[in-house]
Amino acid sequence: MKILLLELEFLKMFNIKFWLVISLVFIIESCATLPKEFNEITVKKEITLSQVLSSPENYRGFNVLWGGRIINCLNRENSTILEIVEFPLDLESKPQAETKSYGRFLVETKDFLDCAIYTPGKLITVAGTFKELRDGKIGERPYKFPVIEGKAFHLWKEEIRVQLEAYPCWYPYWYLWYYPWWYCP
Prior knowledge:
It comes from Thermodesulfobacterium geofontis. By secondary structure, the protein is α+β, with helices and mostly antiparallel strands. It folds into two domains: 1-31; 36-155, CATH 2.40.50.140. It has two helices and five strands. The chain has a five-stranded mixed barrel. A hairpin with a 2-residue loop joins strand 4 and strand 5. The radius of gyration is 27 Å and the shape is extended.
């Protein structure tokens, strides 16, 4: 009898541990992760563009993760420069283009980025090291651009959102008891 009770206790304990492990696997698996391009770079996601604009000397040399919409791409002899309108990132590090922007920043990289691929209007997430503030202009207005040395880039695919609506089917007779079924898909 004592052995049977010990076996039951073991089975109960195993059952609890088993389901605990399974639930932990699902919880960990469901966490949002960065795109694979950023796996080798340690970044401080909490450093924002507005913080860098207010006190650039405190963040020089830090790795940051910023994103936004490409405004301009310029290939030089030994580098490529991207001008980007910053937008806050969501949990997957995708720029939320429907939200408020806090400014623009420049990305310099020694890699060749084809401006036919990195076209204006595309959403991009960039990881890199903050270097400096550089004087420039937006139109006729002077602006100080934060410059990061780009180390990893992720271009986001365009999402096409389609809204489907159900409209009532035309039926010449009105029957109240048919109510939810008179809608067509």
